[in-house]
Amino acid sequence: MENPPLLVNSPIGLDTTNTTLLNDAKTAAYIGDAVYELLVRQWVAHQWPGSPDVIHTETTQRVCAEAQASMLHQLQEQPGLLTDDDTAFVKRARNLPIPKQRRSQHQEYRAATALEALIGRWFIASPEKLAHIPALLAAELPATGS
After folding, report:
1. How confident is the model at residue 104 (pLDDT cuts 50, 70, 90)?
2. Which CATH number is associated with domain 19-140?
């Protein structure tokens, strides 16, 4: 099935020259968490229209820490997609403090946070890069719905 056009494709009134916002990994992760969830929900709803239970199941499989860590790895494997600044930002985001209850999933949680920060940064400064997400979602996990 063809991917839908992105609903989340540009920042709404955000100052893309605000270097504090662009370089604050914690704030970018906060924004990226919401943007990534919306991108996944949009993609999943397009794949299984009218199936709320399937939509919920497919969405939760794709927004868990394990799936987000895998998505980050896939994005890093795309030639030329991440700039040197993006790569450095991902490393900083990966080193953010993590909540005690998440320490058992230490590596996955850190990678998931780094993905969310990268998505937030792209949403603010490079929204065109978000177009890579749907194709990777399609390849990321086998569909359980239908």
Report:
1. low
2. 1.10.1520.10
